[in-house]
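Researcher: Please predict.
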Amino acid sequence: MDTTKTGALIRELRKERNMTQKDLADQLHLTDRAVSKWERGLCAPDISTLEPLAAILQVTVTELIAGERMPEKEYIMEIEKNVQNTIDYSEQEISNNKKQHRKKIRITICACVILFAGLSFFFLWRSGCFSIIDHSVSPDQSTQMIVYDKLFSTHGKFIGFEGPYTTIKVNDGMHLYPGEYKNIYWSPDSSKYIVEIISNNTKRLYIKEKDTAITVRPNELCSHLSTNFHLHDLKKLGYTAETFLATLPEATYNFIQWGDDSRSILLSYSYYDAHGNHYQGCIWYDYMYDTILDSLDLPPQKASIS
């Protein structure tokens, strides 16, 4: 809108009707100062004022906006132009609205996917799926064992204590071990198994029956074997009943195999005595009766004198 042309047209039409600026302003419920500003081209009539102003001055809104009277042909052409502009504007608005709508749908879908993925990851993490390090099946295929490298509660929820822990799920039971998991050894009849754990740089062997919730006696095989006074014939090394607990050597045990009876276990052992001499050998151990069935002790390797 050219405010100068529109103002000049308003002044011309007002004078044709012998109206003062105040007369026109009163009919529009405005001040004569507003009409004066229009006619001087300082500002344009508000859009809400155009229609009543055009009716009072007996012209069209199109002519007011153009700032001149139009012959009928030009008026019709101007109307068509305005209509086409309105159609184009409407089509553009519809297109923009569709784009905005599609964008909102994409954002909503992406947010839902991210939320679903986040919740799925959280529940899978809580269930321990990302902590599984081994699967083991009993020889008779009746029992599946799942090994986790995290500490879980008996209800299967991740606890998250610091330090290396191993959780083994057997059937519906959870068994917890302090240390790093290394291996599982099933007995031939699938009734029991030995778990090998590294704790504080020391190998530990735990023996368990698959259908019990607590560890079978002895609950920690290595500690039990090391505290057996008759093992390795310690009397010959100078240990006595009064002193052996205080001077007991720290032995390392390695599982070799189960016996065919599924109760005897072949183990190798290795330890150093108080003088630095190295002892090693193999033993057959019957865990049910807590006895040594047979042993093979290799000659000790004497500590070198520096």
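Model: The longest strand covers residues 264-272.
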